[in-house]
Amino acid sequence: MTWLKDVIGTEKAIIAMCHLRPLPGDPYYDEKKGMDYVVEMARKDLMALQNGGVDAVMFSNEFSMPYLTKVKPETVAAMARVIGELMHDIKVPFGVNVLWDAKLSLDLAAATGAKFVREIFTGVYASDFGLWDTDVGETVRHQHRIGAKNVKLLFNIVPEAAKYLADRDIEEIAKSTVFNNRPDALCVSGLTAGASTDSQILKKVKDAVPNVVVLANTGVKLNNLEEQLSIADGAVVGTAFKYEGKFENHVDQNRVEEFMRKVRAFRSLAVK
Predict the structure, then answer these.
(1) If I label 227, which of 153, 195, 204, 266 is the partner at 20 to 30 A Cα–Cα?
(2) Is 122 in contact with 155 (CB distance < 8 Å)?
(3) What is the mean pLDDT of residues 94-101?
(4) Which SUPFAM superfamilies does the record associate with it (predicted)?
């Protein structure tokens, strides 16, 4: 049994993304509609996800494009306001992801009571956002300083829109990440949000670290969820839950319900 059962309530967990609209300081923030609009759109998506039956939710500033690797204070402040206003509506375990800043993700988790964070904690990358460096030792020390030691750390080891500077295979990365950093989970991604995770890569990672939770981090859809969940311990799902399966759209509760029905059927067969 993994920690997923204790924290989220089930194995083969589905963590649904609640993508926040652009926030103050973001290039595409709508000043006329303001933060009230951001909050209400987040509430709309949250309710559709929960009513559709997801196991957990992760709030992220997905529309803060183009992303920063050192996020500004106004972003995390705005995210804290959104989650604070939604607190009475949140009925499932939740996590947070401040793209792409590991320490601020932990700050937000500590402030809101989030159970987990997903981030790029390790590695050095050539990315669309420039040279992308990390400092996992300082990040984990920060986690303990702020009283967030019980927050689960989901390490994305295949960052979107980025590539390791060193020539290392994925099994080597998985093994050394686990040995050096004791992550709670490894997330395996496709190129961008909504892009399918390569099942062969997913299997290589799971085989390399069989005792660690491995999550399919992008691109799990109705037509591949059984294949992906037969390998991974769970999945992070965002785009597949949206109207017409398009990243920029809002959550479609009907799509969520259909997806989760298939997940529950898969789980029941897996148990047998």
Answers:
(1) 153
(2) yes
(3) 97
(4) Ribulose-phoshate binding barrel
Give residue 114's identity as a one-letter amino acid code: A
Residue 77: enclosing H or E segment and its boundaries?
A: helix 73-86
Q: Locate tokens 């400092």: which residue?
A: 135
DSSP 196: P
36 to 32, 49, 92, 170, 215: CA distances (angstroms): 10, 20, 23, 43, 33
Residue pair 26/60 in contact by the 8 Å Cβ criterion: no
Average per-residue pLDDT for the chain: 94
C-alpha dihedral (241, 20, 99, 34), degrees to nearest 10: 160
Whether residue 152 contacts residue 121, with contact meaning beta carbons closer than 8 Å, is answered with no
Q: Report which of 158, 182, 155, 156 is spatially closest to residue 168, judged by C-alpha positions.
A: 158
Which domains does the chain possess?
3-271 (3.20.20.390)
Q: What angle do the packed helices 253-271 and 34-52 form, to 10 degrees?
A: 40
For 127, the token pair is 């990315």
Contact 105, 97 (CB under 8 A): yes
CA pseudo-torsion sign 174, 218, 271, 55: positive
Quickly list DSSP for 234-271: EEEESGGGBGGG-TTSPB-HHHHHHHHHHHHHHHHHHH
Query: Model confidence over 126-151: pLDDT tens digits?
Result: 999 899 999 999 999 999 999 999 99
Which positions ≥6 away from 130 have C-beta within 8 Å? 69
**21 vs 38: CA distance, rounded Å:** 6
Q: Which two tokens stand for residue 32?
A: 């006329």
- Residue identified by tokens 């009571």 is 113
